[in-house]
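User: Here's a protein and a ligand (flavin-adenine dinucleotide). What would the complex look like?
Assistant: Let me lay out the input and then the predicted complex.
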Amino acid sequence: MATNIVTNWFGNIVSHPSVIVDANSVDDIVAVMKDPVKYPSPVRAVGSNHSTAACGVADGGTLIRMKMNQILNIGATSLTVQAGALHLDMAKALEAQNLQFYVNTEIGSLSAGSASCAGTKDASFPGEYGQVGSYVTGVKMILPSGDQLEVTEDAQPDLMQQVRSSYGLFGIIHEVTYKIRPLTPMHVHHTTYSLEDFIAALPDLKALGYSIMYYMFPFENKIAVEFRKYNPGATGDPNHAAWALRNHIWGTSGPKFGHDTEQNVSIPSIRYSIIDAFNAAWRLQLEYIVTSDYTIPPDQIIQYPAVSDDSRYTFSLFAFAEDEFPAALTAFYKFCNDYYTQKGYRSNLLYVGYRIAQDQKALLSYSYDGTVMTIDPVSTANRGWDDFLVAYNQFCVSLNGKPLLNQTPGLTAAILQGAYGDKLKTLAATRKQYDPQDRLLNDYFRQLLS
Ligand SMILES: Cc1cc2nc3c(=O)[nH]c(=O)nc-3n(C[C@H](O)[C@H](O)[C@H](O)COP(=O)(O)OP(=O)(O)OC[C@H]3O[C@@H](n4cnc5c(N)ncnc54)[C@H](O)[C@@H]3O)c2cc1C
């Protein structure tokens, strides 16, 4: 009988594993795989357990917490680490050698194991991908049989493509190799638009050659756009304060303000006036302080606390083909306002989104068919959030949005089938080949992949 309680980082997804194993060595993982009596199924591994969906839940089974976090090798163009290594720690080690990741997500807690087999997002630089795993060139994993399997981009590109969407369903990954690049100065600036002006300007903005990320304010009809590009000719010293401010407001003080305002101000109209005023100040800070010709990419990565506190937030995500995005965004702003009018619910934080280049490196890449732009509602999970997400999922499905299995709560098999179709059959066939006894299959994936 299950006795342990483990939650994801935010605290809203609960797992009841019968056994918890801290994997400090490959032998620890092999021991789990080889003894289904002592270590019951499903066997799931987690890194930092930040996922906003139940992909890491091991009800009645064995939860492996990846503690193996050593950096094994840093070369001029590659980094090899143990799967429990965290994005921020790796980025700092690379920076010390004038190197960097291609994709520097704001989440510093992203583990290498998760990056190599689960979905991620960040705004793509021109000519680059926006998914971390697309720069993972090889993994070593322990299969349910207890044997080791090494997969590399060079030797098995098709299998590597599936590994990047395998969510730990083929095996438990213990070693990851990334392609990396020289540390390069980066320009950043922000501009705020009305929704209509942004949509009118979007074709021109795309042609400018910046990465495009955006903070959405549906209740003020505004959108603040983050523009970044590499600026190798930058001189002087890097500006560290710009990203430090962004990180603090986005990762700590913003969500804490939303949380506290929610708790302390009971009248919605007053509560949301206060939150909208905070958001207006946030846009000014983005425009006037988070701007520089010379920042460095690792400074964007946020150190979230290991155990979440009142500054925690959660979110969802759907991606839209970029030519369908202007209509989707316009409909989304209306959807949020209509929902608030009809149901009395709105989020107490802002929303975000990313422009992510076409990318076929992962089988279940949400930008497999072309460049996408995402709509990610964010919240402290104030009352009504869960119902809102059900409506948001329906809204996104009706506009051909594509979800992520680790970042879109409330998925159903039908939603997944509509988004990824026959690719799911390919994934299921390979999964069955490596895991014929369903040792790694939890209820979440059993229901979604059935
Ligand atoms: C505050 C916050 C901010 C976030 N910001 C971003 C962001 O900027 N960009 C972004 O892309 N995402 C972001 N996320 C979403 C998401 O949590 C991450 O993309 C990522 O999944 C987190 O890594 P993790 O190590 O916590 O993964 P986990 O949640 O631990 O695991 C994710 C999946 O991978 C599997 N897995 C993990 N390790 C292994 C392994 N060693 N072997 C086999 N399978 C494994 C798990 O079983 C699970 O299915 C954010 C989440 C939060 C809560």
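Summary: The mean pLDDT is 97.
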